[in-house]
Amino acid sequence: MPDQPRVPSVMTFVVRFWREWSAAGVRWRGRIQHVESGDAASFIDLNKMLRFLRCSGVMAEDESLQEREEE
Protein backbone atom coordinates (compact mmCIF):
# COMPACT_ATOMS: atom_id res chain seq x y z
CA MET A 1 0.00 0.00 0.00
CA PRO A 2 1.56 3.37 -1.01
CA ASP A 3 2.31 5.84 1.74
CA GLN A 4 -0.21 8.66 1.90
CA PRO A 5 0.83 12.14 3.08
CA ARG A 6 0.02 12.71 6.72
CA VAL A 7 -2.78 15.25 7.04
CA PRO A 8 -4.07 16.18 10.50
CA SER A 9 -7.56 14.86 11.22
CA VAL A 10 -8.64 18.36 12.31
CA MET A 11 -7.68 21.67 10.71
CA THR A 12 -9.00 25.12 11.56
CA PHE A 13 -9.74 27.85 9.03
CA VAL A 14 -11.24 31.31 9.34
CA VAL A 15 -13.31 32.40 6.34
CA ARG A 16 -14.55 35.96 5.97
CA PHE A 17 -16.97 37.22 3.28
CA TRP A 18 -17.89 40.83 2.51
CA ARG A 19 -19.68 42.79 -0.20
CA GLU A 20 -18.09 45.51 -2.28
CA TRP A 21 -20.06 48.15 -4.13
CA SER A 22 -18.88 49.79 -7.35
CA ALA A 23 -20.28 51.35 -10.52
CA ALA A 24 -20.37 47.82 -11.99
CA GLY A 25 -22.56 46.60 -9.13
CA VAL A 26 -22.20 44.55 -5.98
CA ARG A 27 -19.77 41.64 -5.72
CA TRP A 28 -18.73 39.33 -2.92
CA ARG A 29 -15.11 38.88 -1.87
CA GLY A 30 -13.53 36.66 0.72
CA ARG A 31 -10.42 35.71 2.63
CA ILE A 32 -9.49 32.34 4.10
CA GLN A 33 -6.78 31.71 6.67
CA HIS A 34 -5.36 28.46 7.98
CA VAL A 35 -5.13 29.16 11.71
CA GLU A 36 -2.25 26.83 12.55
CA SER A 37 0.14 28.03 9.82
CA GLY A 38 -1.12 31.57 9.28
CA ASP A 39 -1.24 30.97 5.51
CA ALA A 40 -4.02 32.97 3.87
CA ALA A 41 -5.56 33.78 0.50
CA SER A 42 -8.06 36.30 -0.79
CA PHE A 43 -10.64 35.27 -3.37
CA ILE A 44 -13.53 36.52 -5.47
CA ASP A 45 -14.83 33.08 -6.40
CA LEU A 46 -15.20 29.87 -4.46
CA ASN A 47 -12.86 27.92 -6.75
CA LYS A 48 -9.85 29.84 -5.43
CA MET A 49 -10.99 29.16 -1.86
CA LEU A 50 -11.33 25.44 -2.66
CA ARG A 51 -7.84 25.40 -4.25
CA PHE A 52 -6.45 26.90 -1.04
CA LEU A 53 -8.16 24.17 1.01
CA ARG A 54 -6.83 21.43 -1.28
CA CYS A 55 -3.29 22.84 -1.09
CA SER A 56 -3.64 22.70 2.69
CA GLY A 57 -4.49 18.99 2.45
CA VAL A 58 -8.25 19.30 2.87
CA MET A 59 -10.35 17.33 0.37
CA ALA A 60 -7.24 15.98 -1.38
CA GLU A 61 -8.98 12.61 -1.75
CA ASP A 62 -11.94 14.36 -3.43
CA GLU A 63 -9.58 15.85 -6.03
CA SER A 64 -8.03 12.47 -6.88
CA LEU A 65 -11.51 10.96 -7.16
CA GLN A 66 -12.55 13.72 -9.57
CA GLU A 67 -9.45 13.13 -11.71
CA ARG A 68 -10.26 9.41 -11.96
CA GLU A 69 -13.87 10.15 -12.95
CA GLU A 70 -12.67 12.46 -15.75
CA GLU A 71 -10.47 9.75 -17.34
Could you characterize what this model shows?
By secondary structure, this protein is α+β, with helices and mostly antiparallel strands. The chain has one domain. It has 2 helices and 3 strands. Strand 2 and strand 3 form a beta hairpin.
Strand count, sense and barrel status of the largest sheet are:
3 strands, antiparallel
Secondary structure category: alpha+beta
- Reading the helices and strands in chain order gives EEEHH
Cα(first) to Cα(last) distance is: 22 Å
Overall average residue pLDDT: 83
Write the layout of secondary structure elements.
Layout: E1 13-22, E2 25-34, E3 40-43, H1 46-55, H2 60-70
Antiparallel strand pairs: 1-2, 2-3
Identify the notable features of this structure and list them briefly.
elongated, 71 residues, 2 helices, alpha+beta, 3 strands, three-stranded antiparallel sheet, single chain
Q: What is the gist of this entry?
A:
The chain has 71 residues and is an alpha+beta fold.
